[in-house]
From TrEMBL:
The protein's name: Endothelin-converting enzyme 1
Domain Peptidase M13 C-terminal: 600-793
Listed GO biological process terms: protein processing
TM region(s), chain numbering: 40-58
Peptidase M13 N-terminal domain boundaries: 147-539
One cellular component (GO) term of this entry: plasma membrane
Family matches, as SUPFAM superfamilies: Metalloproteases ('zincins'), catalytic domain
Cofactors demanded by this protein: Zn(2+)
Keyword terms of this UniProt record: Hydrolase, Membrane, Metal-binding, Metalloprotease, Protease, Transmembrane, Transmembrane helix, Zinc
Length: 796
């Protein structure tokens, strides 16, 4: 992964044609593992002195606890009416503090008579604090949870309760903010798609002509199946695999062209491990009923789809695929290892030595040659092919890097053990699996069946929705240009840029005083922060002029009325552009991560830059009509998050030019590691559906979240007079960015595969470790959201 996003988009769910936000919420009633709870409560009992005083006083005065509480609350209410609601001179913080203590003592003290007082105090807190919030912020809040007990439940509880059973049948999860923004884009774009006369409209029309697609059946696959059928020996097998590679279908292993991680002037050719059909290697290797069930369902689906393409022994071939895929999955480096792998410089001789059972030169020659597309469509490649790619790893050539060396070592024996028929079967499966979403309903339905098993979705997308997202995917850049020209409110760009600068100022101030950082490293870190570029809304050059990439227009005149061939042209364009890139000087600013329509934000470690797409610059993330508190809590935290990626466990390894380099002294590295290990252990303690969050997998995102909330908060404080009510709104807006509901299966999948922790834990993890949160909410030390001072993790 070259770019880090705010939320993840797991492998595009073809049948849905839509990105799924990886971070999923509402996992179980409490979500926090019992071990974590025990730890939190253990902390709480060490430091409830202040609360105990009240409790003892209440009891010793001989007044009935309940009456005393009501009296106390009554006094408070008077004060609140006068001060808090008008927000002139104060907001009743003292009262809230008392109520919080009463809640806390009652909730954790165990005396039955305190329970009622505590419950009342808890509800009163909720009522008091939300009173000044705008309606749309109030609505998702649950008055049943105290903000110091579980802030996610407090901020999102009513919304999750209401939406838990309303997940559309064709989706596996719904996120409050992300969905609102995506729906708004779709509402304004669908009409444009219908009337557009360029590639966007052409693709959309072809997709919407379902009768035609259905009539075609498996026909569009025939030229591709013929490639597989034509394999007679090892040599023709290798050539066929490369032909598929040129059309964006990987087999056995994968590859790409990217920036040389150590040199910002050079691009390199990378070999890397491939993906498998099920979401993670665990699905193939774990000996549980759950995973065995998924494997059986996959095999059944493969068999069914092989039947649809007329294979004579579909079940036998499905078994061959499963055996081969299981071996490949078992050989994969796991995600934590893969995350830290920046590639090893090799030569093709070395590659041949590592995986001797593959004809690497033959593969590379075919990959880099310009041959006609098997289906007769535009080949998209330059005449003469790509000699520079052929020369990689050689004297005078561009670098060749291998990621996942351990995988490539294991790949040799796998290729040796499995028959050519098995690899052919795998190729057919990869073809039909990737093509299915563009084929007739028979294919779609069969794939949806498989997704039902993996993600829990119930049925396929309505056709217009499916076609909208497929169009946004295949004709991504021309569609983004349409959005920018016809929908995007450009004044949002300037306001966002100003906010970014304020956040950068706060980050820079922190670098000067960060205790664990050695003095000699501060300057270089500031330099890196200073050189970080921001692209906001749409692609721009260094002078701020709009600068759209070639692919915005490259598809013009090439698409027709056949859906799958259109898809393949889009894929070939992407592949050919990648290969062509090798000889081009890298442009640090080149838009990465996604397109400007994404409801997301990105940081590129080798670019040292941020892309903030137009898609996220809208309500509820950002709106000039919203208060500063909401804007800083939502988009501000997103911007701070991306900026902090430049200094997370991966990003920090790159210098100001985005080059891998040891630019920190050992003592700074040690300090950083101490802080990041602390954060990883917080997230390790969270679990869901019996699976623990993998703190090492989500570490980069968790570090980014902790920096994001901090610098957004500091910028918010520095840019105006803020009342306690404003601060509470800031934190609530932040948490509501992550209100989510998802299906059980999808939750389990994301914890195994997603580098982002579930939304709920992102809220709990970031806010428990940020002291101003506990201060703002008057949380008693030791309550779940307020660990004892001195025990918090500290990094940025
Ligand atoms: Zn991120």
């Amino acid at each position: 992964p070259k770019v880090t996003g705010m939320v993840s988009h797991p492998p595009l769910l073809g049948t849905q044609g839509q990105p799924l936000y990886g971070a999923a919420g509402a996992r179980g009633r409490k979500g926090v593992s019992s071990a974590a709870r025990r730890r939190l409560y253990a902390l709480s009992f060490a430091c409830v002195a202040a609360c105990c005083v009240i409790y003892v006083a209440v009891a010793s005065q001989g007044v009935a606890v309940e009456r005393r509480a009501v009296e106390l609350l009554g006094e408070g209410m008077d004060k609140i009416d006068a001060k808090y609601l008008t927000a002139e001179t104060g907001d009743g913080s003292d009262l809230i503090k008392k109520l919080q203590q009463m809640w806390f003592v009652g909730a954790h003290g165990g005396k039955p008579e305190m329970k009622a007082v505590s419950d009342e105090a808890r509800e009163l807190v909720a009522q008091l604090v939300v009173a000044p919030f705008p309606e749309e912020v109030k609505k998702p809040i649950s008055g049943k949870t105290n903000p110091c007990d579980d802030f996610y439940e407090f901020a999102c509880g009513s919304w999750t309760e209401e939406n838990r059973h309303k997940i559309p049948a064709y989706k596996s999860s719904v996120g409050l903010a992300w969905n609102q923004a995506s729906h708004r884009i779709r509402d304004s774009m669908e009409e444009l798609f219908k009337t557009d006369e360029g590639p966007v409209g052409t693709y959309y029309k072809a997709c919407m002509d379902l009768d035609h697609v259905n009539k075609q059946g498996a026909e569009p696959l025939k030229p591709w199946l013929a490639v597989v059928d034509g394999i007679t020996d090892k040599k023709s097998l290798v050539k066929a695999v490369a032909t598929f590679n040129k059309n964006n279908i990987d087999n056995l292993f994968s590859w790409y062209v990217g920036r040389d991680p150590t040199d910002d002037e050079t691009r390199a050719f990378f070999l890397t491990q491939s993906a498998v059909t099920l979401p993670d290697k665990t699905y193939y290797t774990e000996d549980s009923d759950e995973m065995k069930g998924h494997r059986a369902k996959l095999q059944e689906s493969i068999g069914h789809l092989f039947g649809l393409i007329g294979r004579e022994k579909p079940e036998e071939e499905a078994e061959l695929v499963m055996k081969l895929e299981t071996d490949i999955a078992t050989a994969l480096d796991d995600r934590v290892v893969s995350r830290g792998d920046h590639g090893t410089v090799v030569t093709w001789e070395k590659v041949q030595e590592t995986t001797p059972d593959w004809l690497w030169q033959e593969w590379l020659e075919e990959l880099t040659s310009c041959s006609d597309s098997p289906d007769g469509g535009a080949s998209m490649c330059p005449e003469g092919g790509h000699p520079a790619v052929l020369a990689t790893g050689k004297e005078g050539g561009k670098p060749l890097l291998m990621e996942n060396v351990a995988f490539f070592k294991k790949l040799g024996p796998i290729i040796k053990t499995h028959t050519t028929e098995a690899v052919q079967a795998l190729m057919r499966w990869k073809l039909v699996h990737s093509a299915g979403p563009s084929l007739s309903e028979e294919f779609l339905d069969s794939l949806v069946h498989l997704q039902k098993d993996i993600y829990g979705i119930q049925q396929k997308s309505p056709r217009p929705r499916k076609c909208y997202y497929s169009t946004l995917d295949t004709t991504a850049w021309p569609a983004a240009k349409l959005y920018a020209d016809k929908v995007f409110h450009r004044p949002n760009m300037a306001a966002t840029s100003a906010m970014l600068e304020e956040i950068r100022t706060q980050f820079a101030a922190e670098l000067k005083v960060e205790g664990w950082m050695a003095d000699e490293d501060r300057e270089a870190a500031e330099d890196k922060l200073h050189k970080m570029f921001f692209q906001v809304g749409v692609p721009t050059d260094a002078e701020g002029k709009e600068d759209w990439p070639e692919k915005t227009t490259a598809l013009e005149g090439l698409l027709g009325h056949e859906l799958y061939p259109n898809e393949m042209i889009g894929d070939r364009l992407q592949i050919q552009e990648g290969l062509r890139d090798l000889t081009r000087k890298p442009d640090r600013r080149k838009w990465g991560g996604s397109t400007p329509t994404a409801v997301n934000a990105f940081y590129g470690p080798t670019n040292n830059g941020l892309w903030i797409p137009a898609g996220i610059l809208q309500s509820p993330f950002f709106d000039v009509r919203n208060s500063d508190a909401r804007n800083y809590g939502c988009i501000g935290a997103v911007l701070g998050h991306e900026m902090s990626h430049g200094f997370d466990d991966n990003g920090r390894q790159y210098n100001a030019r985005g080059e891998l380099q040891d630019w920190w002294s050992p003592s700074t590295v040690k300090g950083f590691e101490k802080g990041s290990e602390c954060i990883a252990s917080v997230f390790d303690s969270y679990s869901i559906k019996g699976r623990h969050v993998q703190g090492k997998l989500t570490l980069g995102e968790d570090i980014a979240d902790s920096g994001g909330i901090k610098f957004a908060y500091k910028a918010f404080e520095a840019s105006g007079e803020r009342s306690p009510a404003d601060r509470r709104l800031f934190f609530t807006a932040f948490a509501q960015t992550w209100c989510e509901v998802d299906r059980k299966k999808s939750a389990a999948t994301s914890v195994l595969t997603d580098e982002h922790a579930p939304g709920k834990f992102r809220v709990l993890g970031a806010l428990t470790q940020f002291r101003p949160f506990a201060e703002t909410w008057q949380c008693p030390q030791g309550s779940p959201m307020a660990p004892k001072d001195g025990t918090r993790c500290h990094l940025w």
